[in-house]
Amino acid sequence: MEFALAPTEPRNAQSYPTVWDRSDLRVVCFDIDDTLIDFTSASRDALATMIGRDDMWPLWECVTEAHVAMVVTGELDYPTMHRKRTKAFLAELGRHVSDHDAARFERSRAAEMRSGFRLFDDVLPCLDWLRTAGVSIAAVTNASGSHQRAKLDALGLGRFIDHVTIAGEVGAAKPDPMIFHSACAALDCEPSQALHIGDRLHTDAIGAQSAGMRGVWLNRDGQQDTEGVAEESGVLRLASLADIPELVVCEFAQLGAPPPR
Question: What would be the CATH architecture of the domain defined by 13-38+118-251?
Fold first, then answer.
């Protein structure tokens, strides 16, 4: 994903067993891109607008992943990565451009993408319900802090979120337990008192589960878990955030929570 830090391997994940306390849910953490905000649609549409074709998204993702890995290792900063990523991508299409033109392309693409960001329809009702229930809310992301905070504020999510945990600021990226523990510490709760919801099975759900939280895989598109990894790890699977109230009330016995609407 755009601006995403490549996930690090969990450090000593086996030392963080899941000890879930059903009666004491205090914090719900969310991934941001493609969990709360439809990032992929906006980014894919922006790229198609810029190059005049809509079949190059897999190539863009591949080139982006390779260049973001260099940000993680400290070889590149984000502005340099964006320029080099764009040059490399366009070169694959047979268009060799200067640094200046690559930077201009990136600015236009980013502006087009930002104009296309939308919340999924189930986001605001879910966050409003959690706020009413008295549950603290965190966002946990591997992406650039400045971009993510601006995105949350622009889409009206800042008023719901008590803390934003950024991989680059913590020094660890999902699925490393450290980033999940940082979110819990910021909201003064134990990992066993929190759950994390995200669209990536391994990075989000299993990563959180390995950190001692309850992991929830938000599988909007009905992806098949052909290897049975989700079942084996014990993570929960939901198709929509609209299912969160029932999950909290029924599965986790959240005391004092209002009934699902």
Answer: 3-Layer(aba) Sandwich (3.40)
